[in-house]
Amino acid sequence: MSPDILRITDQISPAELNGLVDVLQDGGAIIAAADTVYGLVTRAFDRKAFDRLDRIKGSRALPYVVIFDSVDGFEDWYGDFDSFRRRLISILLPGPVTLILPVNSKTSGDFRYGEAGIGVRVSSDALLQQLGARLGAPLWATSANRSSGPAPVNFDDISQALLEEVEIAVDSGSTIFREPSTVVDMRQRPFRVMREGAGLDRVQQALAEADAPLEILVVCTGNICRSPLAAALLQSQLGPPELSSVRVRSAGTSALEGSPPVQSMIEIASEWGLDLSEHRARQVTEEILRGADLILAAEPIHRDMIVEAAPWLKKRVHLIGGKTGFETLPDPYGAAEDAYRHIAELIRQATEAWALEIRALLEQPV
To answer: Is this model's pTM higher than 0.85 or not?
Structure first.
């Protein structure tokens, strides 16, 4: 068949966008430019579309890449990431990078990367973002060529035979990066580059940052009682940063900068072999929050304040006592000595539970 050729020099019109979405909604195929190369594009996780891609593409060594319209959409579909993967994703996406991730429960065997993964992209190309958002579903994409052929970076490089296999082909000139994506294997640590391509320098820098110590922030109100003790306990349970690859710090939502810890907590910490005497309170800031891979809040109100101020941090914020059944670790400030010792013991139990989980993450097989 002869496809409709849609030539775009600036922005696509609403009517043109709707036409492309209608084709994809019906299990059809289009050709459009990603930021890297031109691709065959269909609706993802649709059996009719999957079979259509197979017929067009011919033999293939790997499943098709899933393209999401946004990082939030990708995270909502995939589920929670550990801190190391989240760190890399936040740096690289959207962009000219394909990430190979451990398969999740939503991905059947046909749609996996080899035996144990799924290839994912969030393209920086506006058209693909618009298509995914309007379709309300991710896209499948594979380079617009027969298997083993060169990936086209200009519309004129696409073979006529392939053009005749799709309903609509979008001609938007040359792609942004003019080469295939860099592929990063994130199925297990250490993460590694599987294929060099567009954005390689950025990927290599991000991989170096991904190996930096895990940054954990503990937050309470004044940063003179609960959070400094929790931070000191968790750091001691994990080991020093240079050995554990974890750095634990603390801050307060209403801290008086430079204030020392309350004497009761200094004394309790000392009995446990910890020195809080040099600690000084600091106020939570956006910069401090942005640098944290994991944020542990003493009470739901602290968690909610952080999320309200920085919604993009929502998946990084947890309650210190959440793993031991204590949503709230009450503030003992101004109470009797027994109250300090009670809260200190709850904090110790909570940080031990977090230390177990963090060590398990750090000890993932490589």
So the answer is: no
